[in-house]
Design brief:
Elements: H1 17-45, H2 59-85, H3 93-98, E1 100-104, H4 112-137, H5 142-164, H6 170-175, E2 177-181, H7 183-188
Antiparallel strand pairs: 1-2
Helix pairs in contact: 2-4, 4-5
Length: about 190
C-alpha cells in the first residue's frame, strides 16, 4: 500500500495531517467519556457481583470477558462511527470539528455498506488489542495475546499512517472511501 497522496481526491479536498489528528482526538474523547460511564457503572455494580475464586482462568471466563468487552465497548464505538458517518453530515463529531467528512472514492456520498466496511476494519484493530490485553491481564494464552496485540497495532497503523501523509488507509482502500475536507473548509483554506 503506497503512502503517496490520495490521487482520488483533488488537492483542495485532501485533509491536512493536523485536521486528521484533531478529528481523532475528539473522537477518542467521546470514547473516553463512554469508558468513564462504564467505569462508574462497573464500580457501582461491583459490590453486587459474586467474588471470583483466585486461581487459573478458565476458558469460559476468558470468553465471557471477551464478549463483555466487545458488547460494552467495541459495538457502541462501531455504532457511533457508522451512524455518524452515514448521516447526511458524513462525519463523526471529531471529523465535524476538524471540517472533514467521509466520501466515496469518487467524491460522492458513500453508501452505508461502505461505511460499515471501513469502520469494521478500524474497529477490528481495537478489538484485536482488547483480545490481546485481556489475555495478558488474565495471564493466559500470553503468546496468543501478544500476537493479537501486535496484529491490532499493525492494522491500526495501516489505517492511520497513510492518512497522515494525505493518502487513504487500508480501511478506506478496501471500503472504497476516503476522508476529505468539507466544501466550506476547502474554500476557507483558499485551496
Amino acid at each position: 500500500m503506497p503512502s503517496t497522496p490520495d490521487a482520488t481526491a483533488p488537492p483542495s479536498l485532501r485533509p491536512r495531517p493536523l485536521a486528521r489528528v484533531r478529528s481523532w482526538l475528539l473522537d477518542w474523547l467521546v470514547v473516553g467519556a463512554w469508558l468513564g460511564v462504564l467505569a462508574v457503572v462497573g464500580l457501582a455494580a461491583r459490590p453486587l457481583l459474586p467474588s471470583g475464586e483466585a486461581g487459573a482462568t478458565t476458558l469460559r471466563a476468558l470468553l465471557t470477558a471477551d464478549v463483555l468487552i466487545t458488547v460494552a465497548t467495541v459495538l457502541p464505538y462501531l455504532l457511533y462511527l457508522v451512524l455518524t458517518e452515514s448521516s447526511p453530515r458524513r462525519a463523526t463529531l471529531g471529523k465535524r470539528w476538524a471540517g472533514l467528512r467521509v466520501a466515496a472514492a469518487d467524491g460522492s456520498s458513500p453508501v452505508t455498506g461502505s461505511v460499515w466496511v471501513r469502520n469494521l476494519i478500524k474497529v477490528l484493530a481495537w478489538q484485536l488489542g482488547h483480545l490481546g490485553f485481556t489475555r495478558g491481564m488474565l495471564e493466559t494464552q500470553v503468546g496468543l495475546g501478544i500476537g493479537l496485540a501486535v496484529a491490532g497495532t499493525l492494522l491500526g497503523l495501516a489505517c492511520a499512517v497513510p492518512a497522515l501523509v494525505g493518502g487513504r488507509g487500508i480501511h478506506d482502500r478496501i471500503a472504497g472511501t476516503r476522508v476529505e475536507r468539507g466544501a466550506a473548509t476547502a474554500r476557507r483554506s483558499g485551496s
